[in-house]
Amino acid sequence: MTTLAMVFGMVPLAFGMAEGSEQRAPMGQAVIGGIITSSLLTLVVVPVIYTYLDDFAAWARRKWHPADTVPRAGGALGVLAQAPHEDGL
């Protein structure tokens, strides 16, 4: 919603229909382009890259350290359900 408000707020500046607004119109267009680009990067590109890197790390862990990839129960209750260590902790 913030991105849309910023873009729609800059539309009159970007169109530059008033007298003397030809000088400010490129700034409005650049701001609109930057806001849209940064929003797409934040909402789409960064999560996709993170997912790929996380999958790559899991693959590398399985490939180079197969003994370390024992499946464990997740979450807070899963930690309590794990077998105790040899030292009794």
Task: Pick out its properties.
89 residues; mainly alpha; 3 helices; 0% strand; rod-shaped
Number of strands: 0
The rounded Rg comes to 26 Å
Largest sheet: none
Strand content: under 5%
- Elements, N to C (H/E): HHH
> How many domains, in number, for the residues?
1
Terminus-to-terminus distance: 49 Å
Given as residue ranges, the uncertain stretches (5+ residues, pLDDT < 50) are: none
Overall 3D shape: rod-shaped
Judged by helices, strands and strand pairing, the structural class is mainly alpha
Nearest-integer average pLDDT: 83
Q: How many helices?
A: 3
Secondary structure layout plus pairing:
Blueprint: H1 2-15, H2 25-64, H3 75-81
Helix pairs in contact: 1-2
Describe it.
With about 90 residues, the chain is mostly helical. It has one domain. Helices cover about 70% and strands about 0% of the residues. It has 3 helices and no strands. It has helices at about 1-15, 25-65, 75-80. Helix 1 (about 1-15) runs antiparallel to helix 2. The radius of gyration is 26 Å and the shape is rod-shaped. The mean pLDDT is about 85.
